[in-house]
Amino acid sequence: MPLKYQTTTNGSIPVTTLTPFHTLKQAALKIDEFLVIFGASGNTGMIATQFGKKMGAKIIIVSIDNRIKDFGADYIITEYDKVADLIQDKMAGVVLNSLGVQTWENNWIQCLNFSMFIL
Length: 119
Description:
Blueprint: H1 7-27, E1 34-38, H2 43-54, E2 58-62, E3 75-77, H3 83-87, E4 92-97, H4 101-110, E5 117-118
Parallel strand pairs: 1-2, 1-4, 2-3, 4-5
């Protein structure tokens, strides 16, 4: 790690990377499955987007920040209730929500057709 960063910053980098990696691995995300990420503009979401893309998933991001497109998102939507429109009759393989408990109910209701929901 570069010496110019504080120890606390350097210590957080592996956690930021390992959390989404382990999560998607445990969820057994598959090629061509939809990965829906709520809160993708944060560190965990950005890394999850990249790992999901490398794993061959179709990435749907729910965020108001369009710069996440640069990290591999296939679709960016700003309203959670548009997820069902995108996946239509297909199933979202994994739904990842790092926004917190106040958003869980709206998120999972909009993605009722999923195989794994990760909070």
